[in-house]
Amino acid sequence: MNLAELMDNVSKPYALHVDEHGERLVAMRLADDWEVGFRLHRRGSDRSWSVLEIAVRPHGEDASISGNDMRELPMAALIDEARRLAIKSARPRPATT
């Protein structure tokens, strides 16, 4: 699965996929208006993730995007959330008995 495919299939507020290289693909839907996707690569530990790719697109067939739209997106907060989800996905799950 690639980032575009994950973004095509996100039906909840976010979706996460671990690819064959261990990179995290995170897709988010923002208020039914925007889809934002990130490809994150682990740097050293499970708590440090670099952003390799960002994809932004409006949700809907007739929608378009402008420079003003891009400036209004809270990119720093979205990147922080994508990293948080990557960290959460990398944590070992507690053993169940």
Can you describe what's shown?
A hairpin with a 6-residue loop joins strand 3 (34-42) and strand 4 (49-58). Helix content is 30%, strand content 32%. It starts with a helix and ends in a 7-residue tail after the last helix. It is built from 3 helices and 4 strands. By secondary structure, it is an alpha+beta fold. A 4-stranded antiparallel beta sheet has the order 1-2-3-4, sandwiched between helices. The chain has one domain.
The general outline is globular
Mean pLDDT: 88
Quickly give the structural class. alpha+beta
State the helix count: 3
Order of helices and strands: HEEEEHH
List the helices and strands and how they pair.
Elements lengths: L2 H7 L4 E5 L5 E7 L3 E9 L6 E10 L8 H6 L2 H16 L7
Antiparallel strand pairs: 1-2, 2-3, 3-4
List keywords for this structure.
3 helices; single chain; 97 residues; alpha+beta; globular; four-stranded antiparallel sheet
Short description:
Helices cover 30% and strands 32% of the residues. It is of the alpha+beta class and 97 residues long.
